[in-house]
Structure formats: C-alpha cells, structure tokens
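Support reply, case 0932

Customer input (verbatim):
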Amino acid sequence: MEEEGCLTKVTCGANRRLHISWGAGNELHLCDIAPTGVPASSRRKDEGSNLTVVKWGWQSGSERRVCYDCLEPWIEIQKQRTNGLAGEGNWWASVLEYSERVSQVLGRQDDLRVPREVPANEEDMWIAVRRIVWELLEIFYVRPSASLSAQIQDFLGWLQRNSQVVIGLDRKHASDVIPLETMLRGIYECELPEEEEQYWASVELLVLLGFNEAAIDLLGIHSAWTRWQNRDTAVRAQFEILESLITILQKMPRLAGSNSASLGVKVFNNVSDYNLYKSKWSLACRQLLQNEVLWQECSESSARTAKGAKTVLNGLLGQETALRDGTRAWSELLCAQLLHRYPTIESLSELSSLTEYCMERCSKDSEVIVDILLAILNDNVQEVISLSSQTLGPWFMAHAPELILARPGQRELREVLTPIQGRQGNQFEFFVLDFAEALMTNPSMWQTVCEYLAWCPTCGETALQTFLSHLPLTIQDDKAALLAMQIANKHGLPAVAAQISRSVGLHSWSKGQRARALFWLRGHDDVLKVLEATGRQEQEISPGQWEDEEECWKLLELLEDMPDSKKHAVRLKLARSMAEHFLH
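Our regenerated output:
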C-alpha cells in the first residue's frame, strides 16, 4: 500500500480466522477472530479476538492546516471553471491568483534579499517540498513572461530563495554543509571577522547566489573600515579594494523577471541594453583585478583579504573554477552559472543541459526535485504529472492540476483529460477523489471531505451521497447532523438530507429520547404511521426503551416499502408490535 513496504502486520494463528473489511476511505479493518467453542474464561489474554485498524495518507497537524486553508481558494477556482470561465483568454490570471493564495498558505516568500532557511522538522519539510514544486509549476505553466529571458530570471529567483532548502533535502550530505545562517551568525560574533575561515567563504557564497545586499553588509564589518578611520595607513589598500568591491556589487546588472522590484540592483528589460552595460561593468571588475600594485600592498597587510576579494571578483566575472569552488550543491552552482556566466540563455533546452551539468553533485535524496525540474525543462508534462503523483501525495495532486492545465498548449494533456476506462471521471478528477479518501480516515475532517467530493464534475454527486449516507451521525450531537443536512441541501441532495434526519430521529426514538426523536421526525410520516395504526395521539408518547435496535430498523424499512393496498394487515401488526415498546 506504500512504497516503503507494509504498514503493519497482523498475526493469525492456527484455527483462527482473519476477517478483512474496508472502513472509511483509506482505512482497512482486520479482525483476528478467536476459534469458536473455547470458553472465554479458559483463553489466555493474547488468545482472544483482536481488531486492527490500518490507515494511510494520515495528515499531521501542519498538513491539516494546509488542507483547511487551501479549501476556499480551491473551491473558488472550481466555481469559475464550472461557470465556463476556463475557456477565456485571461483564465491564466484567475489561476495565478489561485496559485499565489495556495503558495501563501505553504509559506511563500518572494523576497530575494535572503535565502529560505532549512525547515526544522519533518512536517515543515513536507510543506517546503510541495511549496518548492508548486512555485516551479507556477513559473513555467502559469505566470506569463514577456520573454524567455524573464521566465529564466523568475527561475533564477526560485533558485536563490530555495537553494538552501534543496540542500536540506539531501539527507546524506546535508549534515556536512553548514547552513548559511549559521555561518553568518558565527562571523558577526567575532572581534576580527575577516580573519575567520568562514568570512570570505560566506561573502563569496552570498555574491555567487546574488544576495549582494547581505554580502555588502558582511563587507561592512571588516576591521579595515575602523582602522582607516583611525588613520591607520597600513590598511589603505584594503580600504580601497573593499570600497571598490562594494561599488561593483551595488552596480551589478540584472535582467528583469516578472517582478524586478526586489532585485535591489540595476535591472534591464532588454537583453541588448543589458549586454552593453554588462561589458562596461565587467571592464571595471577586470581593471580592479589588474591593479597589481594595489593587490600586492593589500596582501602585505592582509593575505586573507587579498585572496578573498580576488575570488569574489573572479566569481562576478563568471570564472568557472571560482563558481565550482565557491558553491556546495547543484542548486547553488546552477544559480551562480545563470547569474554570472550564462545570464542570457536563449532556450529551455540550453537551460536543461546546464542544469544536468550542475547536477553532477546531486545525490539520490533530492531526486524528487531534480526529476520534476528536468521534466519541466524538457517540456514533458506527462512525466511531471507521473513524478508528482508518485512522490508528492494526494493533497498536491488534488490542487496542482489547475496549474498544469493553465499552460497554453494542452496537446500533451489529452490523455489525462480523457475519462479513465471503466470510470466516468478523468485522471485529474481521480486525484481529487483519492485525496478525499485520504481525508476520510480523520473523523474531524468529514466536512472538508464533503466539499471536495461536491466539486468532482462526474463522480462527485454519487460519492457525496454515499459518504453522507454512511456518516455515523446517530452517535454524534445534533449540530453535526444539522451540518450534514445543510451540506446535502446545499449540493442538491434533498433525499440524503431527509434520510439523515430520519436516521437520527429513529435512533433517538429507539433510545427513548422523546424530545429529540420528535424534533427529527416531525418532517416525516414515520411517527404518523405508528400513531394512526395504534389510534394514539402524539401527546401520549412518553419515553420508552426499544430492546432490539436492529429489529427496529427492519420494521421501519418494512413499513416504508409495503404497499397499503396489499399488505395493510401486516403493516398494522408491525406497527402495533413496535408501538408497544415506545408507547404506554
């Protein structure tokens, strides 16, 4: 039932029986039945019958929060689709709004000044992985871009935000990589930060990943600034190099994506203008590197500063060795390559090749992100759907199809949009039904289950009717039953609403709950039939006790089904038999 193996094991000894039955949704009941003929008093404690309930797809607290918070935007996009808006030219705008609302629930953060921190626990990691893939689908399938260059810049922003999280997914090697926030925290606590081993490595990594503001802030705590202000001429070369390096970082050019406001650098919408400015900017970097006298003087006062600043400049100029040595994982290397070496890639196939080149450092633990990313870049929609359904679970597959369906060309989606053989709905509807079944194992989420079932276009009405009809409402309070009736009436199922009220009323009657029974049965003719058969008035009803509840249900079913014209005598006899237990 899961790729990891069996969920549980049930022992069934000799001369015993194993009874298996389905529960609600992804729930299986296994009863190990003790042999008959053996008195219970003579059995050992472990020889009795045992019931095991197996559930899968169970949601943690964080997952349930995501389910609740994403329900409203999902219903709204389904309403718009039902109203025929999906065929309009601006449908992408509705899907984009939906995507942004869902990703906000997942913890969306578009600020490119700092990278995302690695999630602290498994629950947060579950959400982070789905947010990362969700953002990828939005970039390549939903969000319109003025050019391929803008789309690639959006992808570059995705790498900047999520590179640290992707490293955290690599469980085999994540422990060997010091989180960036940990590196920075240790540096700021030092008296002479530039003498620390991690100082220039951190500056270089921040620059390679495009976090220039953070890098400038880190350069600002270099002790040369204070020493120069105190008229220490020995640090003149350090001061000039740091000052020039900060100016270069401040003026570093970037191509614009969908949103260039948060880049914090000189942004260009036109590739030609960008290349012209970039050539002048790169010349300034090379001129600084070629000032041998300045570097020699700097090396004499601080060899670490000279070496570190040179490495940063080489990275800014896109030197391959500097990019590879300064990054720690494929996500960081790919980000550095796109930012400093290949900023003007002209096709997704080139981007795919560059990504594969950088993934030489990738380990198997991050394959979920790697494989889906490569499938997107290779324009293999079917592979994206298949990989997502195998690895990202029912919630993701119930909500992500709206993003995939928003892409301009949908020839590749013809297969998944075709009804499944032997079923009425298509593959995307099946994903929603599968998610609803996963929710059914949690009794507190039955209302959420109803909402998802109600919006399945072909199977939803039947599935919702079946689910509502089998809710154990007779043992719950009246509020739950009223909510179930409200949901049934809301979605055009009055017969189900009537069945709920009748079931709760009859159960209350069988337990001698007079007032509750009259409340629920007042809109039905069951009580009237009994009263007419016995000649009593409603006011004469008083609490009673029905010994055999199962027999009560059988009698009432017979009363409902028998025609008056042919079986009136039997009908009267059954009514009187039942009334003896309810009425004085």
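We compared this against your earlier run and they match. Two observations from our side: Residues 17-56 form one domain. Strands lie at 17-22, 27-33, 50-55, 253-255, 266-268. Please reopen the case if you see a mismatch on your end.
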